[in-house]
Design a protein that fits this description.
This protein is mostly helical and 280 residues long. It has one domain. The protein contains eight helices and four strands, in the order H-H-E-E-E-E-H-H-H-H-H-H. Helix 2 packs across helix 7, helix 4 crosses helix 5 and helix 4 crosses helix 8. It starts with a helix and ends with a helix.
Length: 280
Amino acid sequence: MMLMLQEAVNVGEMVLHHTADTCELWGRAIPGCHLTYPINTTLGPTRHLFFLVLTALLAFLTLWSTARTIARQKPGTPPKGFAGAIEGMVLWVRSDIAIANIGHDGAKFAPLIITLFFFILFGNLLGLLPHMATPMGNLAVTGALAILVFLVIEIGGMIKLGPKGYLATIFPHFPGMHGPGAVAMAIFMSPIELLGKLVKPFALAVRLFGNMTAGHFVILSLLGIVFLFGNLGFWSYGIGITTALLIVGIMMLELIVALLQAYVFALLSAVFIGLMQHEH
C-alpha cells in the first residue's frame, strides 16, 4: 500500500499545487475564475485573491477593534490584553521604524508604514495555517506593494523637494564641476540614477516573494521525502519521524520569518522614503 501511495504522489506537482495560484479553493473550483471568452485566460477571482482580501480584512479589523478598545478606556489607563499588545506594536512601528528612519516628517508616513507592516504580517501568517495560502507568495501582490511604495517615494519627494530639487535626484550636480562638464556628467549619470530608483521597489518585491515562497518549498519538499522513502520497511519510520521533527523546526522558524519579513519591508520602505525626503 505504501508503494502504491508513493507512486500516486508526485512531489513536484504537490509543491506547485500548494504554492502556485489556482482557480481552486479547498478542493472546489472558484466560480468565474477561468474565462474562455473572448480569450482563454484567468482574469476572475483566484485563491491568492481570496486570501489577499482576507488578509486586508484581518488587518483592518485588528487595528479598528484595537482603536475602539483604546477609545473606550478611561484617560490615562493603558489597554490590556490583545489591544495592549497591538498598541505596543503600532507605537513601535511608528516610532522605531517610520519616524526614526524618515525624520520629523515621519509621522505623515507612519499610517502607511503601519498598514504595510500589519498587512504583510497577517498575509505571511495565513500561509502557515492548514488549507491556507499566503498572498505574499504571489509576485503580483508583492510587486503591487512595491509599486505603491515607489509612488509614495517619488511623489512625496517631488512635493518635498520641488520640481528643481526632484530633477536634481535624476540629474545630479557634483561639487567642483561647472559648465559643459557638469552638464555632460549629469546627463551621463541620469540613467544610473533612474536605474537606482527602479531597483528599490524591485528589491522589495523579490525579497518578500522569495522569502515567503522558499520556506513553503522547503517544508513541502521535506514532506515529499516521506513518500519517496516510504517503502523501506522499518527505516521508513525513522525517516518519517526525523522528517516530521525537521518540519516542526522549520515551521517555528517560519513564524520568525513571517514577522521578520514584515519588519524588513516596512523598514526598507521607511528608509527609502527618508532618503528621498532628505535628498540634497
